[in-house]
Design brief:
The protein is an alpha/beta fold and 358 residues long. It is built from 14 helices and six strands.
Length: 358
């Protein structure tokens, strides 16, 4: 069976650039809203980008889906997390029931939530999850490669297919989320290789570690970063990645291919997105930022992805929580764009855009 993702690996697919004409048109429309020019700052550009990706002058935020990719990591046997792999299964089932922090917040905003089992280490199907499992968790990357090229390909294709499915179901916006005990360790190693940084610069406390636990985690990341030189993005993912991270890479690729804006969450979504952008040039142009997480490498990842997170509250939740919070802000901006008085209607003459308010 031939996967569409294999065509990307073989450089057979190019993506369309985001419409600059539509972006500029929406930005121009913002100037007619009765307020200071560029008064909403970054939000005006983000809103314009959503419309440009969707291909419409008035962006739509009506039908939104949070896709949470779940998978286990063999590296947890090195003691890099305070929890064991059983927690991934428990949390995935809870996500499926809509009872997690991101789940209840999403429900309050009429956002649909789907938990996708891409690689949980469990025999059998987990209630409430979409079963797309490639294998029962990755291998311990200090002992062998986390996965094979074909396993990575299959996991990425899961994400791409989920975006195609979402497009066909009429979703306007996709939010990225994940669950996987040990995944910040994998992501830290990936960041180290892709950004050419050392373990201290890329390794944070994840879901919460003592000073001793953090030292152990950094030692593991440091060992991993000394194992190879000059790895390609594909090789980095195969040696050290996660199945749920691969699926999120597929979400980003799918967003670019099918023209659906994809909202980032924290570090884990960002490292997955960076891989996508390295594999398919311009894929990051279809991303929408949310927050800058507490993980120390997030700022560097955001810069590489050409996005500017608008929330900075030292969050460390994962599961798409920051992306869900971003929706509430976007919908507030939508109301201002569509319902606020325009210059002239408000009795105030049209402000001039002198180009220095951007």
């Amino acid at each position: 069976m031939k996967y569409l993702f294999e065509d990307i690996l073989e450089n057979k697919i190019k993506i369309d650039p985001v419409s600059e004409e539509l972006f500029n048109k929406i930005k121009e429309n913002w100037d007619h809203v009765s307020k200071p020019i560029n008064g909403f700052g970054t939000f005006e550009s983000i809103y314009a980008k959503i419309g440009a990706i969707q291909g419409q002058k008035t962006p739509s935020l009506e039908k939104i889906r949070l896709i949470e990719c779940c998978g286990d990591h063999g590296i947890v046997e090195e003691g890099v997390s305070q929890a064991d792999q059983s927690v991934t299964r428990i949390c995935a089932e809870t996500i499926g029931k809509g009872l997690t922090t991101s789940g209840v917040m999403a429900k309050a905003q009429n956002i649909d939530v789907v938990a996708v089992d891409v690689g949980i280490n469990y025999d059998g199907q987990i209630p409430g999850t979409v079963y797309k499992r490639v294998k029962n968790g990755t291998n311990n990357f200090l002992k062998e490669s986390a996965m094979t090229v074909m396993e990575f390909t299959q996991a990425v294709q899961v994400g791409m297919d989920l975006i195609k499915e979402s497009k066909d179901m009429g979703y306007d916006l996709i939010l990225m989320g994940e669950m996987g005990i040990g995944n910040t360790t994998s992501a830290s190693v990936m960041a180290g290789y892709l950004l050419e940084l050392n373990a201290e610069t890329v390794t944070g406390r994840g879901a919460g570690l003592t000073d001793e636990g953090l030292s152990k985690k950094r030692a593991v990341v440091s060992m991993a970063l000394s194992m190879y030189r000059d790895l390609s993005p594909l090789e980095v993912c195969v040696h050290f990645g996660g199945l749920e991270l691969a699926a999120m890479t597929g979400l980003v690729l799918g967003g670019a291919l099918y023209h659906i804006p994809v909202v980032l969450d924290g570090m884990l979504s960002m490292i997955s997105a960076l891989v996508a952008d390295r594999l398919l040039e311009g894929a990051a142009d279809y991303l929408i930022p949310s927050h800058k997480s507490k993980e120390i490498v997030t700022e560097k990842l955001a810069k590489k992805l050409r996005v500017s997170p608008v929330l900075d509250a030292e969050m460390a939740l994962g599961e798409g929580t920051g992306a869900v919070m971003m929706v509430s802000l976007l919908r507030a901006i939508e109301v201002a764009y569509t319902k606020a008085l325009k210059f002239g209607d408000s009795g105030v003459e049209q402000y001039e855009n002198y180009g220095n308010n951007q």
